[in-house]
Hints:
By secondary structure, the protein is α/β, with parallel strands linked by helices. It has helices at 3-6, 11-27, 75-82, 125-133, 149-155, 189-199, 233-236, 241-256, 272-287, 306-317, 320-333, 338-362, 384-389, 395-400, 430-443, and strands spanning 33-38, 43-48, 85-91, 138-143, 158-161, 181-186, 228-232, 260-264, 365-369, 404-411, 417-424.
Amino acid sequence: xKLREALELDKEQLESLRDELLAKAKESKINAYIGFxxxxxxxxxxxxDNIQVKDWSVTSGSKILQGYIAPYNATVIEKLKDSGFAPxxxxxxxxxxxxxxxxxxxxxxxxxxxxxxxxxxxxxGGSAAAVAEGIxxxxxxxxxxxxxxxxxxxxGVVGFKPTYGKVSRYGLSAYxxxxxxxxxxTQDVTDSALLYDAIAGHDSKDSTSAEVExxxxxxxxxxxxxxxIAVIDNYIQEANDDIKExxxxxxEALKVRGHTIIHKQMSNTKYDIAxxxxxATAEAASNLGRYDGVRYGYRAKDVKNTKELFFKTRSxxxxxxxxxxxxxxxxxLSSGYYDAYYLKAQKVRHLIRDEFNKIFDEADLxxxxxxxxxxxxxxxxxDPLEMYKSDMxxxxxxxxxxxxxxxxxxxxxxxxxxxxxxxxxxFNEQPIFNAALSLEREVNYNN
Length: 447
Ligand code: GLN
């Protein structure tokens, strides 16, 4: 059932829908849910484990937050409730949203519903896998460098990363504050617009929230609008054959629908990964400083003094990937290295932005891959650098604060989904949804 249909149900029907989903979720083997809480009546929405729901446990997939109960609702939760939705269930995720596979979760990995030997992507892997498995109608995820779009692509569902500042981050556990955005993961583009409308809008509780009025995307959906769409020719060279095939298929489909395709190059893409992993880890090192065993969740036992309390709590409470990033973040921020790494990364961030803006002088949208391959096998990503490299197509969007939607285009010969993304100028989100809807209709992924 789609969200738009569920919104028509009465109270009793909603209750039985909720029971049915929960029963299926409890039986499911993919470990997408890590909790089955539910709060209020409304169309049930699965919530990633880094978004506060009052009185629910919220742990960001980490041991260090075990036992912590959210004292208030995130703004997105209040907004969901105002629009006829209700939070139901906790979605698994990579610890503190650091990862691309959902394997770094304290609760163990989530499995890809299309092939249980593969990852669902990450970090919002629980959210995307649950929607694909049919145990959630829709979910909220968060995207710092691809964490909504990439799992959506690996699982064959739709994920939208809003313009930075369009959705309040109040009540979202911070990973990298200048990059994080909450967004919807849904079965199709229309539901994505609907759920996005529910959570978007200015919030005085978030100082980075944009003071712009949100105009309903859902009510203005128009798949007949024609756009100029840029394809970045050097981008696609980095992807494997499955992705190239989907890319060509999407280009043909967009042409059939009357859109104009133009060809462009981007030269700064080679700096994306380095820039992102300097800025994201620097911000993470500072954001995660608050988890010290005093204020939140887990506290180490048998300690002699405060220093040892901090040391032991953090050593025992954080997983390897989180520790690696805290170390890296503190390194790039330390005196002597700050200018060489952090400051330089901020400068490169501007160059990347300028390059995107130049393309948007001529194009309404950009079509791009999400990941260089289909979902990898569980346990196959041993080298952290290799994992970081797989983010090459998604992270620039966050560095620049742009909106982008990930939608499924086709399955490869083994039945594994391939998704691509449409990217637009900041705050120019209607064209993304209109073009995505036309592409969705033309490629007809679900049939
Ligand atoms: N894979 C990226 C990272 O590990 C992005 C994660 C995210 O968007 N939260 O940082």
